[in-house]
Amino acid sequence: MAKHSTYVGALSPEYALLGFLEQGATHGYDLHRRLLFHLGQIWHISQSQCYNILKRLEAQGDIVGELYEQPRLPDRRIFHITEQGRARFEDWLATPTGCSVRAIRVEFITRLYFAHLRGSGEAERLIQNQVEIVRQGLERLQSAQKTFAPEQTFNRLGLEFRLQQLRAALDWLQNCVKTLQGD
Amino acid sequence: MAKHSTYVGALSPEYALLGFLEQGATHGYDLHRRLLFHLGQIWHISQSQCYNILKRLEAQGDIVGELYEQPRLPDRRIFHITEQGRARFEDWLATPTGCSVRAIRVEFITRLYFAHLRGSGEAERLIQNQVEIVRQGLERLQSAQKTFAPEQTFNRLGLEFRLQQLRAALDWLQNCVKTLQGD
DNA sequence: TGAGATATACTCACTGGGTGAGTATATCTC
DNA sequence: GAGATATACTCACCCAGTGAGTATATCTCA
Fold it and tell me: Do B144 and B73 have their domain in common?
């Protein structure tokens, strides 16, 4: 069940789509439009990729589509989220985000978006959790830094880069709280 | 020719492999080991992915492999870089890296690695170029910041995140010069 | 009035990044 | 003498992502 891919590159917008569908049934075209409008700076997803994901979600049983014929426009498939899909989404929303920069930029902000919509301080809790995770990640990287052989200059540089990025992410997280309060 | 993929996710270690092969012919197992040792913090590549790429490079004519039978160990395929492959590599090395954080962390550091090996100030020039590119990117993002509708809080947050990350990258670049001089 | 852009809605075939498991042998270690 | 580790590569698979194509309706502006 809920067999998450383990490798870090696997940041699929499928949960964003599930999240939109959790708010109510709709069709692929609309989902793509909403993704662009609300999270377009986070996800850069083509229309066809959107449909690809919907196809997969349907095959997995997270959503079901019903065909509606329209008089003159192309037929629509309206997707509904299933109980299984809803459970997967809730599960994902409660899963802490890793501390890679990419995970924060993409997965964390997406989670934050849906948590914020629900109100009641969920977003703030999410941020505080993430601050803790990033702090721990920083410590881990800092101790890893000492283990390099001197000839591995570029591995060291790579690690320093990640450290700087994580520190910046931490600053951003702390600023995030204020931004979300002020709107 | 040199049909680069256009989308940002496309950061293939193929050029790193070409770069190693440009230093001399060798086999897949050794290439994977070298990639891990010298750039393991930059590329997280499984063995099979390494072989996948070699297969593609051979199909494209950038490298050629010759089979060597060994008495008791598995056969080896020794790969040589072709003239076309060498040209592709040189081309890539001279191409400026984009200003996404990921591109810098991965592509830029890889370029820097090979430029540094050649000496004669190539690495320093690369860094100075990149500083300029990142500065321009920062300005572009800063002006994009003003164009958001007020309801697009999360797009704005996403953009702020990228801004912070780029500023940190700029600091890192400036530090880089010192690190490379001091070894 | 009529040409061209833009919106609606989806399909298809493809590339390429990435993984995990499997194969078979030799040597090192305890 | 058993079990880990190194050598060297193959295979089948998943999924992220793209670009082009299809077909119609409405809006825009000269």
Answer: no
Instruction: State which residues between 32 and 71 of chain A bring their CB within 7 Å of strand C.
Output: 33, 47-48, 51-52, 70
Distances (CA, A) of B40 to B10, B106, B109: 18, 11, 12
**Rounded distance, CA A128 to CA A125, Å?**
5
pLDDT tens-digit map of B91-103: 999 999 988 898 9
Cβ of residue B47 lies below 7 Å from strand C = yes
In a domain, A84, yes or no: yes
The last residue of one of the domains, among B74, B95, B116, is B95
Instruction: Give the nearest partner residue to B105 out of A158, A169, A172, using CB atoms.
Output: A158
In a domain, A159, yes or no: yes
Distances (CA, A) of B127 to A159, B91, B98, B175: 17, 17, 13, 10
Distance CA B137, CA B132 (A): 9
For B31-88, write each residue's pLDDT tens digit. Answer: 999 999 999 999 989 999 999 999 999 999 999 999 887 766 677 899 999 999 999 9
Whether residue A132 sits in one domain with residue A75 = no
Contact criterion met (CB < 8 Å) for B161 and A105? yes
Give me B6's structure tokens.
């256009």
Q: Domain tally for chain B? A: 2
- Domain boundary at B95, B114, B144, which? B95
CATH of the domain at A60: 1.10.10.10
Query: Cβ separation of B167 and A168 shorter than 8 Å?
Result: yes
Regions of chain A with pLDDT less than 50: 1-9
> What does the pLDDT look like over B113-129, one tens digit per residue?
999 999 889 999 999 99
Whether residues B112 and A154 touch (CB distance < 8 A) is answered with: yes
